[in-house]
Amino acid sequence: MSEFALEVKNITKRFPGGVIANKDVNFALRKGEIHALLGENGAGKSTLMNVIYGLYAPEEGEIWVDGQKTEIDNPNDAIRKGIGMVHQHFMLVPVFTVAENIMLGAEELQGGRLDISSARKKIRELSRSYNLEVDPRAIVEDLPVGMQQRVEIVKALYRDAKILVLDEPTAVLTPQEADDLFIVMRELTERGVSIIFITHKLREVLAVADTITVMRRGEVVGTTSPEGKSESDLAAMMVGREVLLRVEKEEAHPAQTVLEVKDLTVHDERGLTAVKNISFDLKAGEILGIAGVQGNGQTELAEVLTGIRAPESGTIIIDGQKVPAGNPRYLFEHGMAHVPEDRHKHGLVLPYDLVENVALNTYYKPPFRKGLVRDEEAMLEATTDIIEAFDVRTSGPFSQASNLSGGNQQKVIVGRELSRPIQFLVVNQPTRGLDVGSIEFIHRRIIEERDKGVAVLLISAELDEILGLADRILVMFHGELVAEMPVAKANKEKLGLLMAGSEA
Amino acid sequence: MADPNPSDSRILRIWDSFKSRIPEIWSSISVPVVAVIISLLIGAIILLISGSNPLRAYGALLEGALGDAGGIRRTLEKATPLIFSGLAVAFAFKAGLFNIGAQGQLIFGALVASIVGFGISGIPAIIHVPLALIAGATAGALYGAIPGALRTFTGAHEVITTIMLNYIALNITDYLANGPLKDPTPGNIVARTPKIFDSAVIPDLPFIEWLPLGFVVACLMASITWWLLWRTTLGYEIRTVGQNPNAARYAGMRVAQTVILTMVISGLLAGLGGAVETQGIVYRFQPGFNVNLGFDGITIALLGKTSPFGVIPAALLVGAMRAGASQMQFRADVATEIIDVIQAIILFLVAADMIIRWIIRQRAAAGDGISLSSGWGSNS
C-alpha cells in the first residue's frame, strides 16, 4: 500500500500546433486528503485531469495509482481504477430518477431486465455510509443544483471511486450550498476517499484544502499547504505577479435617474414567468448589483433591458422616454452598452475575425459605414485601438475570435462596448470563467465607467464581485426582487440567505 | 512591427490579412479538388469495368469540351445557368438557409422571361433584352420570397417548403406551356410557348464568338454577389444572421427581414439564370429543357464552397463535362450517363464533408451538444 492514491510523474501533453498544455507536470494525491488544483483558465488544469481520466494520451510521463504504474486509455479504464469525475456541467438526464441516473452505464440486471430496486438499495447504503442524503426515487430536474451535484458524487461512489475529481464544483452553488459541499468533502475523506478539487476561487482553497498545487501556463509552479498562506499569496503564485484582489474605488456620486423599470414581467422560452412584476431605478454614476443564484430570472431581465427579449408587461424608461420593446438598436442609439452573459451565444460571432466582431452593433453607421459599404479601414483602426487599450492578447486584428482565450474574448467585448459614448451599461456575469488578471482589469474598467457618470447595472452570481463593485444591491429570487440594500449594509452571509430564498 | 510610412503599413496589413487566410483558403479548396480527383478515378474504374478505355473516354470528353472554339462555347453555355443557380444556393447558405427551391425559382424566371420575350413586340433589343431579364429575375425573387416569409412568420423550414414549391412551380409552368401559353403554330403538338422575338434574344459579342454574353452576365453577377456579401453592411447582416443569429439579435439586426431578403435575392439569382437560359439558349419556354439546372445549383454551390467566386470554377467543371459528354459518347462509345455518375460522386464527397462540418457548427452553437430537431440552416 502506498501513501499516495494517485501520482502523476513528468506528464507532458502537447497539442497539434505546438501548444504545450502540460509541461513536465508532477502531482501527488495523498490518500484521504483534499488536494486543490489551483490555476487560471488555460493553466492546464483541465488538460491534466483529462489525462488522468483517460481522455488524452500524454506524450511523456507516467500515472501511478495506489503505488502502481498504470496506463489509463479511456474513461472506463479510469473508472475501473477507482477514479471518478464530477464535471462542472452535470452529466445527468433531467427526466430520469436519481436511481436511474446513477445506474446509467453501470446497470444492475436480473435476467436481462433492469433491477432498479437493488440499485436503489445500494444507493441507500452508500447514502448512509457516506452521510450523503439522496432520494433514489426523486426526479433529477426537480432537485436543486446542490442536490444534483450530490447525485453526481454518489454516481461516482456507486462505481467504487476512491479518487474523486471535482471540476469547479462551487461555480453553480450559493455560498451556503458551497459550505454544505465542503462538509460532504470532509466526510468523504474521513471515509478514505481522496479528492482533487479544481478551482480558481482562492477563499475556498484556503477553507477546505489540505494541500494546494498551483499551475501556471502548463507547469506546476508550486505545492504548498494552506497554513500561513493568504489569498494574495496564492493569487501571486497563480498569476506570477502581485494582484489587487479588492477593487479600489471611491465613494459613488449618484446623479440623475437614467433607467426606470416599472412592474416588469418577463416570460422565458417555455412561456413560464421568469421575472415577476419588478420595479427599480438606476442612477447615473452608480453601480447597481443584482445578486442571485443562476436561473432566478436575471438572464431574462438582462435580455429585456437590452432589447433582446420583449417583456410580457411593464415599462422601461430611459431618459424619461418609454423604450420600445425588443429593440436593441433603439437602446444602442440611446447610449446603452451591453456585455452579455454568454459571450459565445450573444457577444461574439466566433468564426469572424476581431475586426468584424468589433463592428457588430455599430456596423450600420459611421465611422464603420460609408454609403452602402463598410469602411474597413475604420473598422481595422478601431480594432487595433481596442487591442491596445484593453490589452487583448492575440496574434492580430485578423485572428478569428474563436482562437482567443475566454479572457481575451471578454476583453474584446468589453472594449467594443466601452469605446463609444454611453450612459447606461449592462454587464452580466462579466468575469465568469476568467483568470484573476483579466478580472482585475475588467473590474477596473467598470469602475472607471461609473466614475465617468455611466449608470451601471451589474448582474453577477459571484458575491465577491457584487460586494466588491456594487454601490447598491438588489437580490433576485424566483424572478422577484426580494431585498434592496446599500453595499455597506450587505455581507456574504446575508446575501447568501436572501439568494436562497429565506427571509433575512 | 514598425511602420515607417503609412503606405508601407497598408501593404503590410493587406499581406498580413492574406497570410492569415492562407490556411483558410487551402482548407476551402482542398476538399473540392480532392473530391473531383477521386470522382474521376472512380469514374475511370467504372469505365474499365464496363469495358471502355478511360483515357480515351476522358480524352474525348476533354476535346469535346475544350478542343475548339465551338467546344469552349458549349462549355460556357452549359456553365452559365449553373453559375446562376449555384450563386442562388450559395447566397442563401451564407444566411444559414438551404434553398432547395432554386429549381422552381429558375423555371418561373425562364417562363416569365419568355412571356415578355414573345408577348411584347416592336421594341428595340436594347430595351427588350434587359426588360425580359428583369422580369424573369423578379419572378424568381417573388417566388423566393414565399419560403422566406413562411420561415419567418410560421417557422416552416425552408428545406421542406422549397421542395414543395418546386412541384408547384413545375406543374403550373407545365400547365401554362400546355394550355393558355401554348405555342399556337399550326401543327405544334409540343408543350411549349411561342418563340421569343429576336429583339429579346441575348446577342452575341462582336468578334469573340466563343464567349456567350450570358456567361459574362453570370460572372458579373458573381462579382456583385461577392461584393454584396463581403463589402456591404447588408452582406454583413446576412452573414451574421447565418453564423450566429443570437449575436445578430443582440446587435439589433432584424433577423426576420434579413431572412426574407436573403431568399428574395437568392430567388432573383435563380430567376435571372432561367431568363438567361430562355433568352440565350432555348428561345422559348419548354418544360423539360430546364430540368435539373436548379438542382445542379446545389452541387455547384457545395463544390464551390458556397463562395461566389468558387461557384464559377465549379460550374465550369460541370459545364465542361456536360459539353464534352456527347463527343465522348460518339468517339469512345461511352454512355453520357457516366457524367451524371461522376457528378453524383463529386456531390457526395463534397456534401459529406459539408454536412459533417455543419453538424459540428450547429452543435457548438447549440451549446448543449444536443440538437435533435435542427437541420441545415436551422437558426432558431
Gist of the model:
The complex is a heterodimer of chains A (504) and B (380). Chain A contains 17 helices and 24 strands. Chain A has 504 residues and is of the alpha/beta class.
Could you walk me through the main structural features you see in this protein, from its secondary elements to its overall organization?
The complex is a heterodimer of chains A (504) and B (380). The model of chain A has no long low-confidence stretch (mean pLDDT 88). With 504 residues, chain A is an alpha/beta fold. In chain A, the strands form six sheets. In chain A, strands 6-9-10-3-11-12 form a six-stranded mixed β-sheet, sandwiched between helices. A six-stranded mixed β-sheet of chain A has the order 18-21-22-15-23-24, sandwiched between helices. A four-stranded antiparallel β-sheet of chain A has the order 2-1-4-5, with helices on one face. In chain A, 32% of the residues lie in helices and 27% in strands. In chain A, helix 13 crosses helix 14 (406-418) and helix 14 packs parallel to helix 15 (436-451). By secondary structure, chain B is an all-alpha fold. Chain B has a single domain (31-365), classed as Orthogonal Bundle (ABC transporter involved in vitamin B12 uptake, BtuC), CATH 1.10.3470. In chain B, helix 2 packs across helix 3 (69-94). The two termini of chain B are 43 Å apart. Residues 366-380 of chain B have low confidence and may be disordered. Chains A and B meet through helix 10, helix 11 and strand 20 of A and helix 1, helix 8 and helix 9 of B.
Describe the secondary structure blueprint for this structure:
The complex is a heterodimer of chains A (504) and B (380).
Chain A: E1 4-14, E2 20-30, E3 34-39, H1 45-52, E4 60-65, E5 68-70, H2 75-80, E6 83-86, H3 98-103, E7 109-110, E8 113-114, H4 116-130, H5 145-158, E9 163-167, H6 175-190, E10 194-199, H7 202-208, E11 211-216, E12 219-224, H8 231-239, E13 257-267, E14 273-283, E15 287-291, H9 298-305, E16 313-318, E17 321-322, H10 328-333, E18 336-339, H11 343-347, H12 354-358, E19 369-370, E20 373-374, H13 376-389, H14 406-418, E21 424-428, H15 436-451, E22 455-460, H16 463-469, E23 472-477, E24 480-486, H17 492-499
Parallel strand pairs in A: 3-10, 3-11, 6-9, 9-10, 15-22, 15-23, 18-21, 21-22
Antiparallel strand pairs in A: 1-2, 1-4, 4-5, 7-8, 11-12, 13-14, 13-16, 16-17, 19-20, 23-24
Chain B: H1 6-49, H2 54-66, H3 69-94, H4 102-119, H5 125-154, H6 158-178, H7 213-231, H8 233-243, H9 245-250, H10 255-282, H11 293-303, H12 308-332, H13 337-366
Helix pairs in contact in B: 1-2, 1-13, 2-3, 2-12, 3-7, 3-10, 3-11, 3-12, 4-5, 4-6, 4-10, 4-11, 5-6, 5-10, 7-8, 7-10, 7-12, 8-10, 11-12, 11-13
